[in-house]
Specification:
6 helices; alpha+beta; about 40% helix; Ubiquitin-like (UB roll); 2 domains
């Protein structure tokens, strides 16, 4: 069995196809962007992109991924050149403890891919099932708006 993660095809060996994708990403591939939060797919901390669509990796068996492309937070940008959504979070200091940030960023990347001009209402609706216990919701919304502007500038360049 193998998996396509962040543009690389990685052999997995003897891992059960029923193993949650999150466990494979964190334990076998040592990718720490997606977090274990609730284990039920309800909090958003484990969000990854599957063929560009936001998906909860804690409740997705490896078999459901098949040959699809998985993108984690680590696959978006680099410390030197962050993805515009990551840069928005940096610029607006949108993280407090940081546990929810993976899910927020991955969800917004998928949203802006699908709907580049998403307004505040669309952003709020998309993030409704990504939980932040620290209460940085206003900063997260500012980061989303900043990211939207950065992505628009990048498209125009």
């Amino acid at each position: 069995m193998e998996i396509n993660v962040n543009g690389r095809v990685v052999p997995l060996g003897d891992i059960s196809p029923e193993t949650p994708l999150l466990y494979v990403l964190r334990n076998d591939l040592h990718l720490n962007g997606p977090k274990y939060g609730c284990g039920l797919g309800e909090c958003g901390a484990c969000t990854v992109l599957i063929n560009g669509v936001a998906a909860r990796s804690c409740s997705m068996p490896l078999a459901a991924v098949g040959s699809k492309s998985v993108t984690t937070l680590e696959g978006l940008g680099t410390p030197e050149t962050p993805h515009p959504v990551q840069q928005g979070f940096i610029d607006e200091q949108a993280a407090q403890c940081g546990y929810c940030v993976n899910g927020m960023i991955m969800t917004l990347v998928a949203l802006f891919e699908r709907e580049p001009e998403a307004d505040e209402q669309a952003i709020k609706k998309e993030l409704a099932y990504n939980l932040c216990r620290c209460g940085t919701h206003l900063e997260i919304l500012r980061a989303a708006e900043r990211a939207r502007a950065l992505l628009a500038a990048r498209r125009q360049a």
